[in-house]
């Protein structure tokens, strides 16, 4: 069986690809599958895509991507499955998907982990907002042989167009990547942490006033790991630029991880990746009770679910002040991920996509 992964980004760069299917590549090889990967963006275009300016180079990168997609159509006959993550092209109608499904008759596995049918374009790329063609998601779902979605909210959307929908959660490789556990040391200043990209950094606005208040009461550090430094006023703030090479060691600096979200349709499509990362490393998570977070975090057992400012303040204060609770919660958090949201636990489910 041969599989072609048609993906937006270069391998190893985007969390959505790394933690939804890239970490299953060794499993596919072990089971006798052959696969190839066809990213739309080159490494050079990926590096500038979400930065201000560079409009000409971005446009050229997009044009090259379309040309590669056109050439790709002539070699699809040798594949048994076409796995499409999010979309074949970032702008315009689903022409490539239509040709693959309706003209070439190939079996598409369509995978997504965000509510990508909703407009959510970054400020740096407003120029393409009107040509993103968000409505194509429903069409691709309809043409797909199977649809792979990261949570129940996304599955419910996909089932409007296709009954063959598989709940395929975002998972963590607890054996080869997130294979360390937080070691707590007495007497150290506790660290509250958040990790994420520029696209989710705005959610920190929810907790900044709370952290400003707690700074006058507690001695702690607030560490942010991202590809962009947040513009927030906190004396406790420490910024670490995200690096794949140091990702795990940087996360292990956290004693408590947070994932604030607003209650809206876009946030409901989130697949709890931040909480999964924290908990896999034995770090208790404090999250908003939005979407799949309520299935990942067991309140009062491996973390807290906070619905308002008072609950956020109480949860942060409680865990920062209680190292033994952090240890207990962290141990149970790791167990939850291993048993329900790990690559090992989800392997047979993932393989069912190409069965």
What this model shows, in words?
The structure is a single chain. The chain is of the alpha/beta class. 36% of the residues lie in helices and 16% in strands. Strands 2-1-3-4-5-6 form a six-stranded parallel beta sheet. α11 packs across α14. The chain is globular and about 65 Å long. The mean pLDDT is 94.
Question: Strands, helices and their partners?
Answer:
Layout: E1 2-7, H1 15-18, H2 25-30, E2 34-39, H3 43-49, H4 55-72, E3 81-85, H5 95-103, E4 107-112, H6 136-143, E5 146-149, H7 152-158, E6 165-167, E7 191-195, H8 208-215, E8 221-226, E9 237-241, H9 247-251, E10 256-259, H10 265-268, H11 273-280, E11 285-287, H12 293-296, E12 303-305, H13 309-321, H14 323-340, H15 343-351
Number of helices: 15
Q: What gross morphology would you assign?
A: globular
End-to-end distance, in Å?
Answer: 10 Å
Computed structural class: alpha/beta
Beta-strand percentage range: 15-25%
Residue windows where pLDDT falls under 50 for at least 5 positions: none
Quote the average pLDDT.
94
Give the fraction of residues assigned to helices.
25-40%
Beta strands, count: 12
Biggest β-sheet description:
6 strands, parallel
Strand order of the largest sheet: 2-1-3-4-5-6
What is the succession of H and E elements? EHHEHHEHEHEHEEHEEHEHHEHEHHH
Question: Measured on Cα atoms, how large is the radius of gyration?
Answer: 21 Å
